[in-house]
Specification:
The complex is a heterodimer of chains A (97) and B (313). Chain A is 86% helix and 0% strand. In chain A, α2 runs antiparallel to α3 (62-93). Chain A is an all-alpha fold. Chain A has helices at residues 2-29, 33-55, 62-93. Chain B has 313 residues and is mainly alpha-helical. In chain B, α3 (52-76) packs parallel to α11 (217-233) and α8 (136-144) packs across α9. Classes of the chains: A mainly alpha (97), B mainly alpha (313).
């Protein structure tokens, strides 16, 4: 059981880290604001989600786990809103490149 | 142990790197973004040092509120003044030298500390039962060194007076203009409708748990201030007129309650800001609740800036 949850944590957190890495590479390499935003929000969304998923067995109880999930949901919400705002500012201000 | 050490070294290098980048950044906006990232990394450093109270404060006030404040200031600067008026080489070299001397002095002091380093932690821990609190940091802030916290409240208030004094005479008493647009974004409005209830609950929790666990009045007030600013930026609430009596009462309430309790302490107990035995925790919580509201309003109004005419329809 313990070994299984260790392996699960290692896999999920590594996958999360991979999405953060991919998102960062996208942020640095993609040509325009909207594509960069796309890469970045994927990293927030899936990367943090997988890290949280991997840490759930270590949260020390249901409440700890719920707190972690709440953190993920709040980051999702804030990230999605900020992405909308930046995209809108980019379209309006012609920051396409 | 080695992976942890590698992580800490990486974190330290990252903090130094971001600090250097922030200093070298050419634009004011970029420098502010660097400063916010620097503050968040610093919060991680404090967390690694197990100083969770300071980590929370650094993230909420050092990085969050100060970051917004700097962004507002950067936006108000005329573009040319911000980007082109770089000070001359002699001044920059002098500033760099001064910083280097201070850094080297601090490093020398830290490295020459005796082993084990002198600490007041055992005394702080030993007197904890008398306060009824479980978190020694809160005990230091509101019991052992309450006078410092009281003076901090006054300083924050004076800062707001300083900001307000930038207003033109004809605008005095008007409302500040936090956000000039009339055309508010739907996504932002949704966030400003859904997030504040969550934020208020989190702030109350952080204030309440601060008595026994990391947290407390300052972090709670930063969260409350953020929620209020969010509703103002999204256009859901208006900035209050700075001449409103209720607003001014809220602003001074924190320091006033502190002062009243302090003076009562010199009558009932035997010193200014001494708490009578048995009532310490109740009084501390009462002070913290009022202080949280006052500081939250003060922080939000600091960010909102001086009153301006023409913002309100």
């Amino acid at each position: 059981m313990s070994v299984a949850s260790d392996i699960f944590t290692a896999l999920a957190v590594s996958a999360g880290a991979f999405f953060f890495l991919a998102g960062t590479v996208g942020l640095l390499r993609f040509p325009d604001t909207l594509s960069r935003l796309h890469a970045l929000t994927k990293a927030d969304n899936l990367g943090l989600g997988l890290v949280v998923l991997g840490l759930l067995p270590w949260a020390g109880g249901v409440f700890g786990a719920l707190k972690l999930i709440c953190v993920w949901i709040l980051v999702q919400f804030a990230g999605a809103t900020v992405a909308q705002l930046i995209a809108r500012a980019a379209r309006r201000g012609g920051l396409g490149s | 142990m080695t992976p942890i050490l590698a992580f800490d070294m990486g974190l330290a290098l990252l903090v130094l790197g971001v600090a250097a980048w922030t200093i070298a950044a050419r634009g004011t906006f970029a420098a502010v973004v660097g400063f916010v990232a620097y503050g968040l990394l610093l919060a991680l450093v404090w967390a690694r040092l197990a100083a969770f109270d300071i980590a929370l404060t650094e993230a909420a006030i050092g990085s969050g509120v100060t970051g917004v404040l700097l962004l507002r200031a950067a936006k108000l600067l005329p573009y040319s003044a911000a980007e082109s008026a770089r000070s001359g080489a002699p001044l920059r070299i002098a500033a760099g030298l001064l910083c280097a001397v201070v850094t080297l002095g601090l490093a020398a002091v830290v490295l020459s500390l005796p082993e084990p380093a002198p600490t007041l932690a055992p005394q702080a821990e030993a007197s904890l039962p008398a306060t009824g609190l479980g978190n020694p940091v809160t005990a230091v802030l509101l019991a052992y060194r309450a006078i410092d916290t009281f003076l901090e409240k006054v300083v924050v208030l004076l800062a707001l007076v300083g900001v307000w004094s930038l207003a033109a005479d004809r605008d005095w008493g008007d409302a500040p203009v936090l956000w000039r647009t009339r055309d508010h974004d739907g996504a932002l409005i949704l966030l400003a409708q859904v997030l504040p209830p969550v934020g208020v609950v989190v702030a109350i929790y952080i204030l309440w748990t601060g008595a026994d666990h990391p947290g407390g009045a300052f972090q709670a007030s930063a969260i409350l201030a953020a929620m209020w600013m969010l509703t103002m930026i999204a256009g859901l609430s208006r900035a209050p007129r700075t001449s409103a009596p209720g607003l001014r009462l809220t602003l001074v309430a924190g320091a006033a309650v502190f002062l009243v309790v302090g003076l009562a302490g010199s009558l009932v107990a035997d010193a200014f800001l001494a708490y009578p035995p048995g009532y310490a925790k109740a009084l501390i919580i009462a002070i913290e609740v009022v202080m949280t509201l006052s500081v939250a309003v003060t922080l939000a109004l600091l960010v909102a800036g001086p009153p301006e005419r023409g913002g309100e329809p």
